[in-house]
Amino acid sequence: MRNALAALLVALALLAGSAAHADQGEVTKLAEGVYFMQTQTEPEFLGCNSGWIVFDDYVLVVDAGFPLSARLVIEQVRKTTDKPVRYVFDTHYHGDHSFGNGVYLDVGAIGVAHALCIRDQRLKNPAGFRQQSQSEDELARRQVANARLKDATIAFDSTMAFDDGTHRVELMFFGQAHTPGDAMAYLPKEKILFTGDACVNGAFNYMGDGDSESWIRVLEKLQELDVKVIAPGHGPVAGRELLATQKRWFVELRQQVAHGIADGKKLEEIQASLDIPWYEEWTGKKAIDQLPNITQTYNELTGRVTPATLLRDIGLTAGSSATKDTPGWTAPKKVVVPNLAPGKLAELQGVAPGVKLVPVRTADEAAAAALDADGVIGFCSGAMVDAGQKLRWI
């Protein structure tokens, strides 16, 4: 009887959370000591959704949000427990998920995130925070008002767990999805998954830092988890079927854009002909109007952006070296690369047209090939540096 009652309460909570008319800013108790807050997006965008887990002697918050929404979340946490907030987990670096870190630091919490998320916080967030605080838009300024920028300081690479014997929260990284450093919070006992923006419930997908091919793979990994409740980064709480819905959007978007490219259509023609009617049923928005998503997918499939899977496979990480926007920069003509499989070599050539790629197997071969090369991937030795008269990067 107790199990049946618990199942009924979970079902009612999910129905309440997924209803289109649910009050935004409403707190839903997903399980004992586990809470989800759908932050307001209309008529004013206050930030991302957040959640929190009450452990024996502390609270872990999922997603810091903007400073504005962080304060609202902390108020709600205080209504559920008097235990201190000790940790805030940023699912990714975007400001609506991490600019509130400073607010949590002020109440004694430490930021936790994947190492790539922290890297991007350090590289990208100072300019974004400054720009928003000086924005002409009143709401944008209010979202970050009276706050300081603070990066997460505890980093993990693949997994990290919080466990007090009652609750267990596993922070998990499966690769690039919405951003390079996306991570999720999984509660295996309660079968709850906080997805950040790797899975959202509605027309909230921003693909500018994402990679749809890798994103699909991440969603497939999430589908392997024993999950009943999805607490998304934006939109109402839902069941595990939301993972399949989110994945379907990317799969069908890639298929239709790929067909358009194969038929010789220009980007504008592909945008005008996109037909995914169920997307409007899900989000209330027409798929044909999601121009940034269509454009990003087109750029991925035509080699205008480097695939995340390729960067992962050859171990290449973006740094602060000169780019084509740097004064005096010239395009490389020859690059030494590891002896990649033919498919990967062709993929790399697709995003580096006009560059001669020279596959090598050993460091000695790399040193010999580096004589007139502009760059080398995958090898570094004193002999190679001495030989490379034109080397600009390794």
Features:
394 residues; alpha/beta; seven-stranded mixed sheet; six-stranded mixed sheet; 15 helices; 17% strand; globular; disordered N terminus
What report would you give on this structure?
With 394 residues, this protein is α/β, with parallel strands linked by helices. The chain contains 15 helices and 16 strands. A seven-stranded mixed beta sheet has the order 1-2-3-4-5-6-7, with helices on both faces. A six-stranded mixed beta sheet has the order 8-9-10-11-12-13. A three-stranded parallel beta sheet has the order 15-14-16. Helix 7 runs antiparallel to helix 8 (241-262), helix 8 (241-262) crosses helix 9 and helix 8 crosses helix 11 (291-301). The longest helix is centred in the middle third of the chain and has 22 residues, at 241-262. 39% of the residues are buried.
